[in-house]
Amino acid sequence: MPPISRGFRRRHTDVDSSRLPPGQYETHDFPVLSAGPTPHRSLDQWTFDIVGAVTHERGWTWEEFQALPSETVTVDIHCVTKWSKFDTTWIGVNVDRLLEAVQPIGDYLVAYCDGGYTANLPIADVSGGKAWIAYEYGGEPLDPQHGGPARLLVPHLYFWKSAKWVRGLRVTERDEPGFWEGYGYHNYGDPWKEQRYWSD
Amino acid sequence: MAQPPRLSWRLATIRERRNETPRAKTLVLEVPDWPGHLAGQHVDVRLTAEDGYQAQRSYSIASAPEDDALELTIERIDDGEVSPYLTDEAVPGDQFELRGPIGGYFVWDGSSNAPILLVAGGSGVAPLMAMLRHHRATGSKVDARLLLSARSLDDVLYREELDALDRPVRVHVTLTRDPAPDGWRGFTGRISENMLTAVGPEPAVAPYVYVCGPTPFVEEAARLLVELGHEPARVHTERFGPTGG
């Protein structure tokens, strides 16, 4: 039994707790977390590539990427640092559309980013309408602080998997830990199972 | 990389509660079987209310790995849920759950001879203090500089301890809000390129840089550091602020 902290009590009772994974609290801000300085990539130097264990490697310029069919999605997001934010609205390209173009052979991928950040995911977790490359948030171009020009959006996993400043996906045959996964965070990161750290 | 210690919840007992500033207190904790930590790492704290409600928050460790107790410095967030309990109501002898250490990137273990530049906004100095305490405890010869931005002199955490640090550590404070006290010889105003240049060390000597504070502070400091020529990959950032609750 955990010790009871007398005098400690829930402050916010108006939260829809069915939407809140264990150990999370709701925030209305949009906190920023990153391991280093925010990179600033100009759009004429931005490309998005899918490489590695695929049938056809493929790249898109910013203009080509913008011409792809986009979707508007409204989702709840959950950060491993304990905040959750409900009903966030994004515009981006469904990752299914991108994978169709390359025909993955491997079962995993590493999202790679400006600034050197990486995150690993099973292909299954970015397929079937579960992930997007998002470039607008709340009706505005995605701010660099939050990962602009574009970030991966995989809302069913802790938000570090939604790699900011994403520039491509490297498809791999074996699962390779990304940046935080190499520093003790969970390899998969399901917020509903509270998979925060490697031993969870 | 070696597998870190398994992260299980442990029982922490408050040994002492120390006032740091009007808004911040340090909790000195006994944690049986604490596996040790690196300077810069943090812990998760979990509180349980009488009705079974639980809340978790992360706090940086302010003590050095060499210290005999684990210290967390908590800034009171007025509309927060966890911090007002920890700063106002928790007293020595009280217990709560804790697990860690967490985070392996924002750390300084003293194994490199490269200089370090620590840049803190407000209570963001806590994990940087762990680095300076580790530096002192090991008698490190590494050139270490701290630039601490605080609203007023009263808001400077660990002031006496920072004042007592000596070469090769150099401490600089800038006061951003209240008029500086008479005879103040430190900086005033928001962090700037000139201030960072005066603090040094210059980018050419490739210091490891650690920036911690609220997001707008960290964004601005990291941007200035990169503009000055610091290699982005050497600039480590950690952010916290009111959302930390």
Q: Low-confidence stretches of chain A at least 5 residues in length (pLDDT < 50)?
A: none
Please report the two chains with the greatest interface, counting residues with C-beta closer than 8 angstroms to the partner's C-beta: A-B, 40 and 54 residues
Number of domains of chain B: 2
Number of strand elements of chain A: 11
Following the backbone from N to C, one meets helices and strands of chain A in this order, namely EEEHEEHEEEEEE
Largest sheet of chain B: 6 strands, antiparallel
Q: Please indicate the percent range of residues of chain A in DSSP E strands (runs of 2 or more).
A: 25-35%
Give me the number of helical elements of chain B: 5
Average pLDDT across residues of chain A?
96
Report the major sheet of chain A.
Answer: 6 strands, mixed
CATH topology of the largest domain in chain B: Rossmann fold
Query: For the record, what CATH class of chain A applies?
Result: Alpha Beta
Oligomer: heterodimer
Please report the distance between the alpha carbons of the first and last residues of chain A.
19 Å
List the helices and strands and how they pair.
The complex is a heterodimer of chains A (200) and B (245).
Chain A: E1 25-26, E2 47-52, E3 58-61, H1 62-67, E4 71-78, E5 83-94, H2 95-102, E6 108-113, E7 118-122, E8 132-137, E9 140-141, E10 151-153, E11 166-172
Parallel strand pairs in A: 1-5, 2-11
Antiparallel strand pairs in A: 2-3, 4-5, 5-8, 6-7, 6-11, 8-9, 8-10
Chain B: E1 10-21, E2 24-30, E3 42-48, E4 54-60, E5 70-75, H1 83-89, E6 95-102, E7 116-121, H2 125-137, E8 144-150, H3 159-163, E9 169-175, E10 187-188, H4 193-199, E11 208-213, H5 215-228, E12 235-239
How would you describe this structure to a colleague?
- The complex is a heterodimer of chains A (200) and B (245).
- Chain A is mostly beta strands and 200 residues long.
- Chain A has two helices and eleven strands.
- Chain A has one domain: Alpha-Beta Complex (Sulfite Oxidase, Chain A, domain 2), CATH 3.90.420.
- In chain A, the strands form two sheets. In chain A, strands 1, 4, 5, 8, 9 and 10 form a six-stranded mixed β-sheet that branches. Chain A has a five-stranded mixed β-sheet with strand order 3-2-11-6-7.
- In chain A, a hairpin with a 4-residue loop joins β6 and β7.
- Chain B folds into two domains: 93 residues, Elongation Factor Tu (Ef-tu), domain 3, CATH 2.40.30.10; 129 residues, Rossmann fold.
- In chain B, β8, α3 and β9 form a beta-alpha-beta unit.
- Classes of the chains: A mainly beta (200), B alpha/beta (245).
- Chains A and B meet through loops of A and β3, β4, β6, α5 and β12 of B.
